[in-house]
Design goal:
alpha+beta, Immunoglobulin-like, three-stranded antiparallel beta sheet, 5 helices
């Protein structure tokens, strides 16, 4: 590999990396606005992260391998180092990304061993566990100004505000939106997190705490609503988590 070729590869990789960073930000915001759950956002972000790491590695490795070939005077040595090294980095980052996604999914409430143990205790006939402090606090978090309106990307969306009426700062608020038929009965539902403070949250509109007395606007696209939806919705707060 010639030095000039490695420099071209480096600059092309850096240009691609900048474009991927912008795409990363656009996809994260778009996924949040579309009402995609935390799992969807996490998977999209993980895939883009792997692509960005491989792109950056491709740019950095090219001049390094070219210099090694130049120093050793061995023809085509750069390619023999470059391609396997890039493959190892790509596979390694992909494996770590998959492990990270699986770990985060297993830590979600209602999944894994903890959920099974909790269910077993209830089935044994013991008294219903007393609600936790966070479950009690949920009644102090309300949804205001819920409405259906056109979105900037065409189609309809559900918009509203979530209000923290208590005295605790919240790092997570999960709501469920019910789409109603003509009789006012739910025919479809969507989960959304207008507040989700986490290193795995890539939506800047949701990745910040909700302080006591504060409200936060949210919007969820209604693309998945069935054809017999009459344009009416209701929503409820299903889960909150306090700031650590």
């Amino acid at each position: 590999m010639k030095i000039s070729t490695s420099i071209i590869i480096f600059f092309l990789s850096m240009v691609a990396l900048v474009a991927e960073i912008f795409l990363y930000m656009f996809v994260a915001v778009g996924a949040g606005m579309s009402g995609a759950g935390g799992s969807t956002i996490l998977i999209l972000a993980s895939v883009l992260m792997v692509v960005m790491v491989v792109t950056g590695a491709a740019g950095v490795l090219a001049p390094v391998c070219a210099l090694i070939e130049y120093g050793t005077k061995k023809k085509n040595l750069a390619y023999k180092i470059y391609l396997p090294a890039l493959l190892v980095i790509g596979v390694g980052v992909a494996v770590l990304s998959v492990i990270g996604v699986i770990s985060m999914e297993s830590m979600k409430p209602g999944t894994g061993e903890k959920a099974s143990v909790g269910s077993a205790r209830i089935e044994e006939g013991s008294a219903t566990p007393a609600p936790t402090e966070e479950e009690q606090y949920r009644s102090q978090v309300t949804i205001k100004d819920l409405k259906v309106a056109p979105t900037v990307f065409r189609g309809k969306g559900v918009f509203g505000e979530v209000h923290n009426g208590g005295q605790r700062t919240l790092n997570e608020v999960r709501i469920k939106i019910y789409f109603l038929d003509g009789a006012g009965q739910p025919i479809h539902e969507e989960d959304f997190m207008p507040v989700w403070v986490s290193e795995y949250s890539f939506n800047p509109d949701t990745n910040k705490p909700l302080k006591p007395g504060y409200s936060r606007k949210f919007g969820v696209k209604a693309d998945n609503a069935p054809s017999d939806w009459k344009g009416e919705v209701r929503a409820e707060v299903t889960e909150v988590k306090f700031e650590k």
